[in-house]
């Protein structure tokens, strides 16, 4: 009997030893696996948290003007910019021990396993916020064991490398709230039309319930189920000590104003938006995916009021049934900021950006660049040359060129440079171009920021070689700012999805033109509006004078197929082009005046709230009165005198003597003898 008992004891001890051994072995194995996972997770380092997010474009006052996305609205916001009510509601309903666990809630896992075993089905979830975030970031939502294992690994990596606040911020910015809204900012805007930081308790508790089943708990799917879910969340928040019973009751009965619209402003300045995206790619070297889905915050130079005025001016000034096209660019000449940009009359019909992409003949708007070069080479506003029909011979007489003035009118005598510009005399321009040498205008145009290749031909002086509207606007801006180099600026700053500044525009201050000559050129450009310079024809801006409320400098340009008007004040430069896309001749009289009318309408309205500022002469500039017909110093007897700016030392010294023989002499009329009235008429006052 004792032998049998001893044998049983020995067997029991043997079994116990085996159990202890295998238990210790299992525990050791589990420990090794656990620490191996920890080590592997540590070696792998922090997983990247980037997710596809909408890139937002902002105007100069911070208004969102557009966005890029692929059907998923995502706007990343910092945790501090999310309502505490939303944070508390989410933690309460999704993972109340979030701030205590290391990524896994083992108690919930055990409870969920027991519930599933009892029901013989998957009835209860146990995923923590960290696990859900890992799934949203890196994994598909399938239910395989391999996916679960990978999810656990990602969860460890998140917990080991990021703070709880960073994980919670990421989760709230990636979770799906239905109706294409990913993240709490997009959801807040869609459901309530406000930022996530402004959500009330009632709104936050409503939104926190949606992620469990967006198609079920969205108030737009079922307001009844959404309210039931909201009540559950409010009670959970009360139980977890976040709110009082009274606060829960008030939030539960609060009437919510639902919006149901995404923040969508892509209709604002579509040509400008395209130009910004192109600049991001070609100038700042962002790739297409980053531009579309990188969550960038792109701060632009667009002025919404100026843009609206520009679009309206084109719309109202051009007849609705006309097929002619138009483009406009407005810039701040001090820094190159593009304040308004219109690339065509209808973006949906034609997204081709005529302000930036089209290369068109600038006509006489090229002359200010030519005449600036002339000023550098000894010309002055008083330099005279003969205006008459002239044929120029080239290649030893084998080639010839005969420029014509508008309506074939010529002075048939000497005219000054100032008058030639105001009347847009083509003969004077070609003579100047050939006198300076054809390379001079090309090189000067490059200094003015003209990047398009120009043809080395005599007619270049008359703008027969194509340029872009944005280039002409930039060139005139350099005259307006006194000769400082600028480039058209569309983007002032770019932030990544974390709000970190990854690009910021830095203004380059460099003089490329002589300030005194830029001043002289500006003053000459005011001449197209000054009737004192009328000669064999009227100044080219005469039709606009009555519409002007402030001093302007400008120049119009006309070719057979293109019509231009470019001009400026000290505060604003704008360039307008009109014409047909297929370079069809502009024949209708009304269509020939579109560019000028659009320009003056835009400038007057855009500057309506600005003071009427006069142009100030630069240092080294002198102003004297001259006779506009001959450019000499005006004498007392000159019938017309015009104040004209010159570079110091280049002003005329000779007085005009052309009018000495025309001294006004009043003709003495013979005295008429008064007829003596008869006495009776005198007596009776008749």
Give your account of this protein's structure.
It is found in: Cell membrane. Keywords: Carboxypeptidase, Cell membrane, Cell shape, Cell wall biogenesis/degradation, Glycosyltransferase, Hydrolase, Membrane, Multifunctional enzyme, Peptidoglycan synthesis, Protease, Transferase, Transmembrane, Transmembrane helix. With 686 residues, the chain is α+β, with helices and mostly antiparallel strands. The protein contains 23 helices and 18 strands. A five-stranded mixed beta sheet has the order 2-1-5-12-13. A five-stranded antiparallel beta sheet has the order 7-6-16-15-14, with helices on both faces. The protein is elongated, with a radius of gyration of 39 Å. The relative contact order is 0.09. The model is unreliable at 119-124, 664-674 and 679-686 (pLDDT under 50).
CATH homologous superfamily designation of the largest domain: DD-peptidase/beta-lactamase superfamily
Strand content: 5-15%
Main sheet: strand order: 2-1-5-12-13
Instruction: Using the CA coordinates, give the radius of gyration.
Output: 39 Å
> So what's the overall shape?
elongated
Q: Tally the helices: what do you get?
A: 23
CATH hierarchy class name of the largest domain? Alpha Beta
Structural class: alpha+beta
The percentage helix is: 25-40%
Could you tell me the number of beta strands?
A: 18
CATH topology of the largest domain: Beta-lactamase
- Describe the largest sheet: 5 strands, mixed
Q: How many structural domains in the coordinates?
A: 4
CATH architecture heading of the largest domain = 3-Layer(aba) Sandwich
Distance between the termini: 176 Å
- Give the integer mean of the pLDDT values: 87
Low-pLDDT segments, ≥5 res: 119-124, 664-674, 679-686
Domain Penicillin-binding protein transpeptidase: 327-598
GO cellular component, one term: plasma membrane
Domain Glycosyl transferase family: 62-238
Transmembrane segments: 20-41
């Amino acid at each position: 009997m004792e032998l049998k008992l001893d044998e049983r004891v020995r067997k029991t001890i043997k079994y116990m030893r085996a159990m202890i051994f295998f238990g210790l072995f299992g525990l050791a194995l589990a420990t090794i696996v656990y620490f191996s996972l920890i080590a592997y997770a540590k070696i792998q380092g922090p997983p990247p948290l980037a997710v596809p997010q909408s890139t937002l474009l902002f105007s100069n006052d911070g208004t969102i003007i557009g966005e890029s996305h692929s059907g998923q609205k995502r706007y990343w916001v910092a945790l501090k910019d999310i309502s505490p009510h939303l944070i508390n509601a989410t933690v309460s309903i999704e993972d109340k021990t979030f701030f205590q666990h290391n990524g896994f809630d083992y108690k919930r896992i055990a409870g969920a396993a027991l519930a599933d075993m009892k029901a013989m089905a998957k009835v209860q979830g146990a995923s923590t916020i960290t696990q859900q975030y890992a799934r949203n970031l890196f994994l598909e939502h399938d239910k395989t064991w391999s996916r679960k294992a990978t999810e656990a690994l990602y969860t460890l990596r998140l917990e080991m490398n990021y703070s709880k606040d960073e994980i919670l911020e990421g989760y709230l910015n990636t979770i799906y709230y239905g109706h294409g809204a990913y993240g709490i900012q997009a959801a807040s805007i869609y459901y309530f039309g406000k930022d996530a930081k402004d959500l009330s308790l009632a709104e936050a508790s409503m939104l926190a319930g949606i992620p469990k089943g967006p198609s079920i708990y969205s108030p737009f799917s079922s307001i009844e189920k959404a309210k039931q879910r909201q009540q559950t969340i409010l009670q959970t928040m009360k139980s977890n000590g976040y709110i009082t019973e009274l606060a829960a009751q008030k939030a539960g009965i609060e009437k919510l104003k639902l919006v149901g619209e995404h923040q969508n402003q892509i209709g604002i300045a579509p040509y400008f938006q395209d130009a910004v995206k192109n600049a991001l790619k070609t100038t700042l070297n962002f790739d297409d995916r980053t531009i579309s889905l990188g969550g960038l915050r792109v701060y632009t130079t667009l002025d919404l009021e100026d843009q609206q005025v520009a679009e309206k001016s084109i719309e109202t000034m051009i007849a609705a049934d006309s097929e002619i096209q138009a483009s406009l660019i407005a810039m701040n000449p001090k820094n190159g900021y593009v304040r308004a940009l219109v690339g065509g009359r209808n973006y949906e019909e034609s997204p081709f950006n005529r302000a930036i992409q089209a290369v068109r003949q600038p006509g006489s708007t090229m002359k200010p660049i030519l005449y600036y070069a002339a000023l550098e080479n000894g010309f002055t506003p008083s330099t005279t040359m003969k205006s008459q029909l002239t044929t120029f011979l080239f290649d030893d007489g084998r080639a010839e060129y005969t420029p014509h003035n508008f309506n074939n009118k010529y002075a048939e005598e000497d005219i000054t440079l100032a008058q030639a510009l105001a009347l847009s005399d083509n003969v004077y321009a070609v003579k100047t171009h050939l006198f300076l040498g054809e390379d001079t205008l090309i090189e000067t145009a490059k200094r003015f920021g003209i990047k398009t290749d120009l043809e080395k031909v005599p007619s270049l002086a008359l703008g027969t070689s194509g340029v872009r509207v944005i280039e002409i606007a930039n060139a005139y801006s350099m005259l307006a700012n006194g000769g400082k180099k600028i480039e058209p600026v569309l983007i002032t700053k770019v932030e990544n999805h974390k709000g970190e500044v990854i690009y910021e525009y830095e203004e380059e201050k460099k003089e490329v033109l002589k300030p005194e000559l830029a001043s002289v050129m500006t003053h000459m450009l005011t001449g197209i509006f000054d009737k004192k310079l009328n000669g064999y024809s009227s100044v080219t801006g005469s039709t606009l004078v009555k519409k002007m409320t402030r001093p302007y400098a400008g120049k119009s340009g006309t070719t057979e197929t293109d019509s231009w008007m470019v001009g400026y004040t000290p505060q604003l430069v704008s360039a307008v082009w009109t014409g047909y896309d297929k370079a069809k001749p502009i024949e209708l009289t009304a269509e020939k005046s579109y560019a000028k009318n659009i320009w003056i309408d835009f400038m007057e309205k855009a500057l309506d709230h600005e003071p009427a500022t006069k142009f100030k002469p630069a240092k080294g500039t002198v102003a004297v009165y001259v006779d506009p017909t001959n450019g000499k110093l005006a004498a007392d007897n000159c019938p017309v005198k015009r104040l004209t700016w010159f570079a110091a030392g280049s002003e005329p010294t000779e007085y005009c003597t052309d009018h000495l023989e025309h001294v006004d002499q009043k003709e003495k009329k013979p005295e008429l003898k008064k007829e003596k009235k008869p006495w009776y008429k005198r007596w009776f006052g008749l």
